[in-house]
Structure formats: C-alpha cells, structure tokens
Amino acid sequence: MTQPPLNDLLCGQVDEFSLNALVDLAGPAGLSVRIEIDDAA
Q1: Which of 8, 18, 23, 34 could form a disulfide with 13 if both were Cys (CB 3.0 to 4.6 A apart)?
Q2: Rounded to whole angstroms, how far apart are CA atoms 10 and 34?
Q3: pTM here?
Q4: Which portions of the chain are predicted below pLDDT 70?
Q5: Reduced to 3 states, what is the DSSP secondary structure of residue 36?
Q6: How far apart are CA 3 and CA 10, in angstroms?
Q7: Phi, psi of 5 (to 5 degrees)
C-alpha cells in the first residue's frame, strides 16, 4: 500500500476502501473481523 492511502486509513477515512480490502488489511494488523447482518426494522 502506498503512503497516501495508508494515511487515509490511519485517519479513519475508510470510505475509499472496499469491504474486501478492509478485511484483508485487518489480519496483518492483528485485528479480527466479525460481520453481523440483522433484519431491517
């Protein structure tokens, strides 16, 4: 990952990343991922 996207991610600007990319980055960062889908209210 190049520096500009890494800076965006570290600043919490995740809207430019796909869900798949965020999940792929979580593992190497030592994070676990849980996805929960609920019925719409």
Answers
A1: 8
A2: 20
A3: 0.64
A4: none
A5: coil
A6: 10
A7: -65, -35
